[in-house]
Design a protein that fits this description.
CATH architecture of the largest domain in chain A: Up-down Bundle
Distance between the termini of chain A: 54 Å
Radius of gyration of chain A: 25 Å
Helix content of chain B: over 70%
Largest sheet of chain A: none
Largest sheet of chain B: none
CATH class of chain B: Mainly Alpha
Helix content of chain A: 55-70%
CATH superfamily of chain B: NADH-ubiquinone/plastoquinone oxidoreductase chain 6, subunit NuoJ
Number of strands of chain A: 0
Structural class of chain A: mainly alpha
CATH class of the largest domain in chain A: Mainly Alpha
Number of strands of chain B: 0
CATH architecture of chain B: Up-down Bundle
Number of helices of chain A: 3
Number of domains of chain B: 1
CATH topology of the largest domain in chain A: Methane Monooxygenase Hydroxylase, Chain G, domain 1
Radius of gyration of chain B: 20 Å
Order of helices and strands of chain A: HHH
Oligomer: heterodimer
Distance between the termini of chain B: 65 Å
Chain lengths: 121, 175
């Protein structure tokens, strides 16, 4: 096993310990605590305002735009990260290419802005 | 049989065990995606599958690809999926009439898919092997190819992304 994977084995152990610890605590708690559910106790906000309607409700289509813009700029980030580690090596050429990339993507954002879909109503 | 394969000299036991565990988790997740009665739960099972793919990338020494997988697929694309599910008129929560009587047709399609993908991989890489000591220097190679041979596809991709934004806005706006 290479050193690289050995490092990630630590991550695996961390995850495993977190799962075991969490499962153990929740399991012991489930065994020890008394369980007497009533309709009143099972409401989402037991001591709060009574919930109205169903938890599964349709959301507005305008929120889709935010998710879509998030995807676009996430992909932008994925391309910028490797470039950013090598900026000096690429020099002016890399800078120009990345600026073209950014300006083209900003067009989409400018369009969204102009159409007013960024406003959170 | 499997013990013989694991004990072979040129095969790395730890990697194989890791691959097996992750692959098993991914298969379970994939089965949950298609069998879950709740569309949102199916989407969350997909998170498991995509994270498993990220773990496999780590196992291959492709650290940057794994992080990108988490960032883009588990992060952004899943949000898009969930929004897509929540936007449609389809009933959220439990559904009982999701079973498709022609579901068995998926089996030959899946086998065909497996065959094509396996053939492409075997044909494309022949006897080429990854170095045993997987180290991560993928980010440099990726940026080198993006600013080198893949420059035109890279900029063409930008237009696809902008088209996606504008198309989404046009479709989502009511006026």
């Amino acid at each position: 096993m290479s050193q690289f994977l050995r490092d990630y084995l630590t991550v695996v152990w961390f995850g495993a310990i977190a799962l075991v610890l969490g499962g153990l605590l929740l399991g012991v708690a489930a065994l020890l605590r008394p369980n007497k559910p009533t309709a009143q106790k099972l409401i989402a906000y037991e001591s709060g305002v009574d919930p109205v309607g169903d938890g599964w409700s349709q959301s507005q289509v305008r929120y889709y735009i935010f998710a879509l813009l998030f995807v676009i700029f996430d992909i932008e980030a994925v391309f910028i990260f490797p470039w950013a580690t090598q900026v000096e090596r690429y020099g002016a050429f890399g800078l120009v290419v990345m600026l073209i990339f950014l300006i083209l993507l900003l067009d989409g954002l400018a369009y969204a802005w102009k159409k007013g879909v960024l406003r959170w109503v | 049989m499997s013990a013989v394969i694991l004990a072979a000299d040129d095969i790395q036991v730890a990697q194989n065990i890791g691959f097996g565990i992750i692959a098993a988790i991914m298969v379970i997740g994939a089965l949950k995606v298609v069998t879950s009665k709740n569309v949102v739960h199916a989407a969350l099972s997909l998170v498991l599958v995509l994270s498993g793919a990220a773990a496999q990338y780590i196992l291959l020494g492709a650290e940057f690809v794994a992080v990108s997988q988490i960032l883009v697929y588990v992060g952004a694309v899943m949000v898009l999926f969930l929004f897509g599910v929540m936007l449609t008129r389809a009933k959220l929560g439990k559904e009982t009439d999701l079973d498709q009587p022609k579901a068995w047709l998926g089996v030959p399609v899946a086998l065909l898919m497996l065959g094509v993908l396996a053939w492409v991989l075997i044909d494309g890489f022949q006897d080429e092997r990854l170095p045993a000591d997987a180290t991560s220097k993928a980010a440099v190679e990726i940026s080198d190819s993006v600013l080198g041979p893949a420059l035109v596809p890279f900029l063409a991709l930008t237009f696809v992304l902008v088209a996606a934004v504008i198309g989404g806005i046009v479709l989502a706006r009511k006026d």
